[in-house]
Amino acid sequence: MNNASFVAPTAISLLEAHFSNASAGVYTRDFPDTPPVVFDYTGDESDNATMQFTTKSTKVKTLRYNETVEMVLQNTRLIAKESHPMHIHGLNFFVLAQGFGNYDEATAAPLFNLVNPQERNTIAVPTGGWAVIRFVANNPGMWYMHCHFEAHIEFGLAMVFEVLDGPTQETSLPPPPADLPRYIKIMGDNNGSP
């Protein structure tokens, strides 16, 4: 996502690093806000092999508690030319609009359903199309967003949101349980041990 393929940490879990404020060497907070290259995402030239390589790192997108986030999920013709069932853990989102072709804010924004949008945690982003979702970051912690096709995670269709604590104890992350494993194997990751 945004040309940054997610790589799971191998030393400690993201949650443990987040809670203990020990992100150094585990993850960085510089997930890109936009793709580095804008191109015709649904056109034939998107089959260009040079467009198919991403950076690999453990970058997370940090969000303030109660921050409203709007995301455009653009399906491209790169690698997997099929719909992508995108799922987020720990949060629900509202589906504002969906369409085909390249997302264009000028033509899509008037179509946004701001009255009674569907609330979900998974959406199928259509082949050659897009979806606009909006959510409120009101659940502190580390939340994984990914395509439900496991092979697509290796292609870069995964990321993590770091939602910061709110102003009260009730809106802050409780400590991890004492028996939380220090490392949890993530789908497609063969580098760690249980």
Could you walk me through the main structural features you see in this protein, from its secondary elements to its overall organization?
With 194 residues, this protein is mainly β. It has one domain (4-165): Cupredoxins -  blue copper proteins (Immunoglobulin-like, Sandwich). Helices cover 8% and strands 31% of the residues. The protein has three helices and eleven strands. It has helices at 14-19, 105-108, 150-154; strands spanning 4-6, 55-57, 60-63, 67-74, 84-88, 93-100, 118-120, 122-125, 129-137, 141-147, 158-163. The strands form three sheets. Strands 3-11-10-5-8 form a five-stranded mixed sheet. A four-stranded antiparallel sheet has the order 4-9-6-7, with no helix packed on it. The longest helix has 6 residues, at 14-19. The two termini are 27 Å apart. 25% of the residues are buried. The model has no long low-confidence stretch (mean pLDDT 84).
List descriptors:
single chain, 194 residues, mainly beta, Immunoglobulin-like, 5-stranded mixed β-sheet, 11 strands, metal-binding
Tally the structural domains.
Answer: 1
How far from one another are the termini? Answer: 27 Å
Biggest sheet strand line-up: 3-11-10-5-8
Question: Residue share in helices?
Answer: under 10%
Number of strands: 11
Beta-sheet strand percentage? Answer: 25-35%
Number of H- or I-type helical stretches:
3
CATH level-1 class: Mainly Beta
Shape: globular
Q: Do you know the CATH architecture?
A: Sandwich
What integer is the average pLDDT? 84
The largest sheet is:
5 strands, mixed
Succession of helices and strands:
EHEEEEEHEEEEHE
Q: What do we call the CATH homologous superfamily? A: Cupredoxins -  blue copper proteins
Radius of gyration: 17 Å
What is the multimeric organization of the chains shown?
Answer: single chain
CATH topology: Immunoglobulin-like
Q: Give the class from helix and strand content and strand pairing.
A: mainly beta
Low-confidence stretches: none
Protein name: Os12g0257800 protein
Family: Belongs to the multicopper oxidase family.
GO molecular function, one term: copper ion binding
InterPro entries: Cu-oxidase_C (IPR011706), Cu-oxidase_fam (IPR045087), Cu_oxidase_Cu_BS (IPR002355), Cupredoxin (IPR008972), CuRO_3_LCC (IPR034289)
